[in-house]
Design a protein that fits this description.
The protein is globular. The strands form 4 sheets. The chain has a 7-stranded parallel beta sheet with strand order 11-12-10-13-14-9-15, with helices on both faces. A 6-stranded parallel beta sheet has the order 16-21-20-17-19-18, sandwiched between helices. Helix 10 packs across helix 26. It is an alpha/beta fold. It is built from 28 helices and 21 strands.
Length: about 725
């Protein structure tokens, strides 16, 4: 079938090799269709100017502004010793703020002639800081003349589209390239079924493409965006619905726990009762395990809501039914930690085949890449004979050598750090596809769950177990109020004095393998992030002298990491200075205080995760977020939001609103390029929910999409190789 030939035309043929090369390398655009789907980020009106006041540091920006003044300075330098160096400083304004542009050397002549006070132009460049003021050095610019010149023709009507651009290709050049290919939009094949389009009152795809690139009015932009959002939501939900439909056809062994087996024995020895939430979620999981097609369930819960216990009960149910369960953790520290806590929770039930083991007991083995050969051989033997009912490990579990007797359940901890290929390889180890339970400690807003994990059923644990203590969080503005930081270290000493322990978290390790020194010199205004080794040293010599301080980071040998964690858990260390290796799953109930240095360099979800390491016992927790960012900065507002609420779902919304969606989706899609261009997962909750309903109905009626060639083409485009594998293997 010769579908959409015009849109599959390589850009090389249409725009010429040099431009096509830059578009392919820097923007990932290869065909006419790709370029037509490269939508404007926003629009400028000729009579309006951008907000210079809100420019982000270190980002590539395009601004429309007016020249306020321009001055040429001479200076002496190594290259021009006799004061012959020239620097042009141009100040531009937009009513909200001013911005300095600088041009040097031979680059000053053209702008000196053209950028006269009163001239309006578009400027593009990277925002940097010089002498504490924002500036653009050597920006590219395009004058906006009011007469009948070509540049005005190019910017259709009064709305100027501003495209996501790069240093190599400014927004207006992308705009010109789009003008060249826009006639091909007429040939775009519509992926939406006609009945759906009419029922929802959406414009056709060619019309939407025309209106998004050459709008005459704001209503044009709204029509186009509404239509293109539907495309994205619907095509993605159809892909997920087909995936769920295919999974429902797979066979699996039903696993039902025996009435007085291992699970019952385990429940009997629990020193507390399960929360209502844990009981409800366990019921959902047990119902899934009892069916004859594989469970695919996402278990998400608040930090510390007891997900591990729910997962362990599911694993015991499968062992009861004669199968084996594997739990995959993203790091060795975490695998060791899970192994330790599972063995502690199970007691003699984890001593299958050993003296003193209970009669229903099984063996719980650990398998990581750094284990000694003898221990590894024994673990592999226990798995293949079925002696070990439960195995906990890192991706060492996935290697070819690892064979299971009868793998019935795979539990994946911290989904977003685990590549899809690995999950797939592990699933291939069962005689039939094993049941799959994915745990994530980062609460995910409902629509993100529907978009990213749409092929999984979702269970949510949102109440904390009894006995958990509240955590007080405060922002410590170290630059504005240095005495606050001094007080923070006093608070740490007080906690230790009361018999408790503390964490200090830093963004960097700080040994020589760290970021190259050159980068540090470039960013003279921006000091490098604080490092574990430096901070530990300063604290030991300064405010925390006399306390037992140790460090923990990802580059230590696994045995050393484990030894430090064991000593910390045993109370032999007062203060642990660490990187984010402690972010997930670390459980030391006696640790009550955490100081996060350079907290503005961490994401909202990450801060929430880190904070969840304290307040795990009966004593209240304290989390101090140290930052040097000024009070009005977005970074400070973000920290304020984290300090103001302990509700992870609320924070995940804030996080999403502040970051680009692509980060969230990209992370969850094992790095695959996010396909969402106009769909905003939080704002467009309704569109996503409606698209999901339509998709489910469509796939139920026609799983092969026989009558919808346009939709099949769009699916193929969405599931480019990488995404295709992602969804296949999900």
């Amino acid at each position: 079938m010769d579908l959409v030939p015009a849109l599959e035309e390589p850009l090389k043929k249409v725009l010429g090799p040099p431009t096509a090369k830059v578009m392919a390398e820097h923007l990932g655009l290869h065909t006419v269709g790709d370029l037509l789907h490269h939508y404007p980020r926003r629009y400028e009106e000729r009579g309006q100017l951008t907000h210079l006041a809100d420019l982000p540091m270190d980002e590539h920006v395009t601004v429309v502004a007016q020249v306020a003044d321009a001055r040429l300075h001479s200076f002496a330098s190594a290259k021009a010793p006799r004061g012959k160096g020239q620097r042009l400083e141009v100040t531009i304004t937009d009513g909200s703020g001013r911005l300095q542009l600088v041009f040097f050397g031979n680059g000053v002549h053209k702008p000196h002639k053209e950028l006269l006070p009163g001239t309006r132009a578009m400027f593009a460049g990277k925002v940097s800081l010089f002498n504490r003021r924002l500036q653009l050095a050597h920006p590219a610019y395009e004058l906006l003349r009011g007469d009948a010149e070509e540049s005005v023709e190019t910017w259709a009507g009064a709305l100027i589209p501003i495209y996501p651009a790069t240093a190599k290709l400014e927004s207006w050049k992308i705009g010109k390239a789009i003008q060249t290919v826009l006639p091909s939009a007429q040939e775009a094949v519509d992926p939406l079924p006609g009945s759906l389009r009419e029922g929802r009152g959406l414009v056709s795809l060619p019309e939407a493409l025309l209106k998004i690139h050459r709008p005459h009015t704001k209503a044009d932009i709204d029509d186009a965006r509404a239509r293109l959002k539907w495309d994205e939501a619907f095509v993605l939900q159809v892909a997920l619905a087909r995936r769920r439909h295919a999974d429902a056809q797979l066979p699996a062994v039903p696993r039902r726990p025996s009435p007085d087996g291992l699970l019952t024995a385990f429940d009997d020895r629990l020193p507390f009762t399960l929360t209502d939430g844990q009981r409800k979620v366990s019921r959902e999981i047990f119902d899934d395990l009892a069916t004859d097609h594989p469970m695919h369930r996402l278990l998400q819960g608040e930090v510390g809501s007891g997900k591990t216990l729910v997962a362990l009960r599911a694993m015991l149910a499968v062992v009861d039914a004669g199968g084996q369960a594997a739990m995959l953790a993203p790091t060795e520290v975490l695998a060791q930690q899970h192994h330790r806590s599972v063995v502690e929770m199970m007691g003699e039930l984890a001593e299958g085949g050993m003296l003193g083991g209970a009669e229903q007991a099984t063996k719980v083995v650990l398998l990581t890449g750094s284990m000694g050969a003898a221990a590894r051989r024994q673990a592999l033997l226990d798995l293949v004979t079925g002696e070990a009912g439960i195995v906990i490990g890192t991706h060492a579990l996935i290697e070819d050598k690892v064979q299971f007797h009868d793998l019935g359940l795979v539990v994946v901890d911290e989904q977003h750090r685990f590549g899809v290929e690995q999950r797939d390889a592990l699933r291939g180890k069962g005689k039939q596809p094993p049941h799959l339970l994915v745990m994530t400690a980062t609460p995910i807003p409902r629509t993100v769950a529907m978009t990213v994990f749409g092929d999984l059923e979702t269970s949510v644990l949102d109440q904390l177990p009894a006995g958990r203590s509240p955590i007080a969080s405060h922002v410590v503005p170290a630059a504005d109020k240095p005495h606050f930081l001094a007080r923070a270290w006093e608070r740490v000493r007080e906690e230790v004095g009361n018999g408790h322990q503390a964490y200090v978290v830093c963004p960097r390790i700080g040994d020589d393998e760290d970021e190259p020194k050159k980068k540090a010199q470039e960013d003279a205004d921006k000091r490098p992030p604080l490092a574990v080794l430096d901070v530990a040293d300063q604290l030991a010599k300064g405010p925390l002298t006399g306390l037992r301080i140790e460090v923990l980071h990802g580059r230590m040998a696994p045995d050393d990491k484990d030894a430090v964690m064991r000593r910390f858990a045993a109370g032999d260390i007062d203060v642990l200075v660490a990187t984010t290796v402690i972010e997930v799953g670390v459980n030391v109930p006696n640790a009550t205080a955490m100081v996060i240095m350079d907290a503005d360099r961490f994401g909202v979800s990450q801060l929430h995760q880190l904070r969840g390491r304290v307040g795990r016992g009966s004593a209240p927790g304290l989390c101090l977020l140290v930052t040097e960012m000024p009070e009005a900065s977005p970074a400070r507002q973000r920290l304020g939001a984290v300090a103001a609420t302990l509700d992870g779902f609320e924070l995940s919304r804030i996080d999403l609103e502040q970051r680009r969606e692509g980060d969230v989706l990209g992370q969850a899609q094992s790095g695959a390029r996010t396909s969402l261009r106009v769909l905003a997962v939080i704002e467009d909750e309704e569109v996503i929910a409606q698209a999901r309903e339509e998709a489910v109905a469509l796939v139920a009626a026609d799983p092969e999409l026989t009558g919808l060639p346009g939709l099949r083409t769009a699916l193929d485009a969405l599931l480019d190789e990488e995404r295709e594998q992602y969804l296949e293997k999900g």
